[in-house]
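Each record in this resource describes a single protein on a pair of labelled lines. An example record follows, reproduced without changes.
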Amino acid sequence: MSGPLLDLDRLVPYLEAHLPGFRGPAVARKFAGGQSNPTFLIEAVSGRYVLRRKPLGVLLRSAHAVEREFRVMKALGPTAVPVPNVGILCEDSSIIGTAFFTMDFLEGRVFWDPALADMPREKRADYYGEIARVLGELTRVDPTAVGLGDYGRPGNYVQRQIERWIDQYRASETETLPDMEELIVRLSGWQPADDSIALVHGDFRIDNLVFHPSQPKIIGILDWELSTLGTPLVDIAYFCTMLRLPRDGYVKGLGELDRESQGIPSEDAFLQSFLQSSRLDFPREWNLLLAFHAFRFAAITQGVKKRHLDGNASSADAGAAAAMTEVAAALGRRLADTNNVPYPSTSSRQTRS
């Protein structure tokens, strides 16, 4: 964590007046990582809290939506989907310069490496099983029942996302990348056959999950900035795409790692666990769905690169994160080129009941 970047002289009195139970004085430290919305640990007399705010400077339209993060986490609080308890949302930028919200600090473990290298081999499959289970719980949430029926536009989610991220990529483009240009051509106008509605996290990676300190149990899903209403397979496909990234990137994947020898379920076994939890069927164009997510991730990291070059990045590691753009674009192009390969097998698929 790094030193304070918050005006505590204004923030602490505001929290004492608006956040029940909060009592200063307090100190603040910025969490490492978090390329989009800066996130801080607030340690006060009354306990530890997390504050998440928008970055300073000129922002892309619809980006860095801490207001949406607060809303979705509050709505999911009573459900089986594990999220931190949220405190308050402040949309008054005069307090610390931007809108922000607070939530409980979760005492747990965050794994930045999906290989779970510091976990005994025989326990790794249990952690992946828990990820599949929680993803299934999220998929089964009825958005309308939790007050999120208007949280996004229904229908054509993937097609609209492709259009959005093409626009976002063009807005932050710094050079021409042939793989990105080819992906834009391949993905433009594409929409998967399954267009049913589900709540989508939008950035479901292993480093956005907080596990119990000693058990394979997820106690909180973080970083809901990109959440919306979309198709049910979006988050599982994104998670699997991230695992296909190489081992040596800023965002670590499993790359060519021999998963079986490391006690990690194969992609097929992981998908079957998810199917049991979610009761979903899989699309025939699985690789193209993965290619879409690789493109989307490349567009996101291109935004980090642009902010890094402009001197407005949230994290000191922004340069390393920005280098992922070309890696993700190359992965996406390979996946798009192999979309005719059916996966998983028809016999292993299940239908939602």
Remarks:
- The first strand starts at residue 26 and ends at 30.
- Residues 341-353 have pLDDT under 50 and may be disordered.
